[in-house]
Amino acid sequence: xxxxxxxxxxxxxxxxxxxxxxxxxxxxxxxxxxxxxxxxxxxxxxxxxxxxxxxxxxxxxxxxxxxxxxxxxxxxxxxxxxxxxxxxxxxxxxxxxxxxxxxxxxxxxxxxxxxxxxxxxxxxxxxxxxxxxxxxxxxxxxxxxxxxxxxxxxxxxxxxxxxxxxxxxxxxxxxxxxxxxxxxxxxxxxxxxxxxxxxxxxxxxxxxxxxxxxxxxxxxxxxxxxxxxxxxxxxxxxxxxxxxxxxxxxxxxxxxxxxxxxxxxxxxxxxxxxxxxxxxxxxxxxxxxxxxxxxxxxxxxxxxxxxxxxxxxxxxxxxxxxxxxxxxxxxxxxxxxxxxxxxxxxxxxxxxxxxxxxxxxxxxxxxxxxxxxxxxxxxxxxxxxxxxxxxxxxxxxxxxxxxxxxxxxxxxxxxxxxxxxxxxxxxxxxxxxxx
Length: 435
Ligand SMILES: CC(C)(COP(=O)(O)OP(=O)(O)OC[C@H]1O[C@@H](n2cnc3c(N)ncnc32)[C@H](O)[C@@H]1OP(=O)(O)O)[C@@H](O)C(=O)NCCC(=O)NCCS
Known about the structure:
Elements: H1 10-17, E1 21-25, H2 32-45, H3 53-62, E2 67-73, E3 83-94, E4 97-109, H4 118-132, E5 137-141, E6 154-165, E7 179-183, H5 185-200, H6 211-218, E8 232-237, E9 243-253, E10 259-268, H7 271-282, E11 287-295, E12 311-323, H8 326-332, E13 340-346, E14 354-360, E15 366-371, E16 380-385, H9 386-392, H10 399-404, E17 409-410, H11 415-423
Helix pairs in contact: 1-4
The structure holds coenzyme A.
């Protein structure tokens, strides 16, 4: 079943109906009024501004591919829902490939209806619908780190905010031979997703970027130029003239009169584009501070500065994953070492519950099977929760650290070290956008 055709989850619909609440999809093709109301409720939930007609037009077109779900209260007049969620299936980059993933966004419950179990019903409905569509992983970015663990999500990739004192550090990286030039915002808008797409596949943890997510990332949407007057965009082209990277930034006066350049996004499909764009930003005249958020925890630019202490790096959790089908999820990625491991996964919501045999061959490919009998004596053996599995899945967390934290249990000697070595990703996973 394709994700767009899946019906509303009946378990949650029945639960919510007990409170006179209706769980339903918005017909985005035919019901503009209901969609506009739905999106304004999302804005309100995140304390954002109301949309105007141009916003609704853009959002309807750019977001038409998604499942737009809401909860309506029979006691309320009008078309405003009391809760919202937006979901779609997207490839998530994992070591060695991609895995179909259920992206969950725009989760809001009106303050008038909070703490009545509405969010729980929405999230569990999405997990069941994803399972019904054979999508093995769910993903989200979280406004608060305390909400989603109870649904089996765990922080699987951290990102960092990098702040560089540009007077202290000079460029010590390579000098690419291509050109950096300014481009207009509509060019940036058009070129960005293709560049990002090339870069995305090199970084576990990234999801596909359409117009809607790209527009949020660069803080610009066509028709809303007034709101983006201070955004500057640059592009890097290689010696043959092909576009290899783009970046968008704003320069503002900080509290101490120092000019700060804030990078909205830097997408580089090649190492040359990466070096040229970072160098350009680092060498902006008058600017004393360069800051960039949502960067990797292992960012090469840190090793392209003359003074490594000029950069402050603040890491935090960003991509949250939930394993729905361990067999499909584990078989979708490649591994750094051959291993034979039995994983006893405990999952209170039962999606990932069970005993699994993970066998990785010399080429790094996995075959995974469900075991109903005892673990084979010649395999390493571990017990872990569905959240532990999600946390180590793309190589963004150390199994050894989780073991030392009392979370992963080693049932045969050395099994944690094997798990760590196999799940390691040479490129630190990251997610460079909010969704
Ligand atoms: C977060 C939000 C969606 C929760 O909705 P809700 O309907 O009140 O949540 P529920 O009543 O279903 O609560 C489900 C569980 O989550 C817990 N919970 C809910 N919101 C929480 C929060 N902000 N922090 C910690 N726990 C929270 C509840 O205590 C409950 O726990 P339990 O089932 O283990 O007892 C809602 O408060 C909201 O819209 N906030 C503003 C927008 C936002 O932050 N959205 C999340 C986007 S990532």
